[in-house]
């Protein structure tokens, strides 16, 4: 289970087996059933979760009750409401399991303590935050400046293996369009 | 000039005068005239800039030639195309001075070396990246899930002193609406 976490970390920093042992002791394994919530808007986000199995949708529910999916967190991704977790304020995001999931999660006090115990974890999260920033910058630009077709192409590039695990409605909610419009885009792309 | 940078850093980490001296040696002071570009899309973003005077708009030009302003970087903010700077790939953002500006800028090799020389800089940028992530998360949610009025309210909360320094067109380009619609929103809010 934590082999995936080890590989994820090893991409960014050099870490010995002992250090990883110390690192991973702060994580708890949890199983989350399909359709269960890891977080609901209004709650405080207590955990950052590393997904080892399954897929979550991380979304915002607007005042009309429409789901706006920010991102999907699947194997080898992290799921959290960064605003709520960092500032320990009520979340505005929902995190819901789309499949039966397994996660490794760390709470804020343990994460804060980890920075003291293992200073190289600062580098790790500095780099991971940087990568998430790049992803968020791309997401902002997409959502404010790109066409639905461009957004769909970006989705398939970002999540190359995910399309078959999601419904058309979920993909449309990520793209901010109706699923009828998504069908049209897919038809246009395939030239039918 | 660098007193502002010192104060900015001191919010996040404890740093001695000697360490700050070592830190700030990696920054160069630059003046950028109103309407000049710090970065154009297609160039590689060589610098991260800390703004000590003036205001920049950081924007994306969509295929219709419409400016979509991602954020304004004014005194005490950082301006960069994080994707281009981190990965040294062509930028998709333009960074343009809206006023005569002064910045302190650091290039990538110097920033990378700084992490080795002064490990506490890892903590600094981990925390700053985290804060930027929170801001980006809010921006994504606004742009995909909130009404124009809500986005305008968020703008005034985020930039409490900036409205008078910007044109209505610039604010509208940040909100992703026409300036006629912005006028309508402002009239509704003031109850006229």
UniProtKB/TrEMBL annotation, chains A, B:
It holds the Pfam family cNMP_binding. It comes from the Bacteria. CDD domains: CAP_ED. Transmembrane segments: none annotated. Residues 30-117 form the Cyclic nucleotide-binding domain. This is Catabolite gene activator protein.
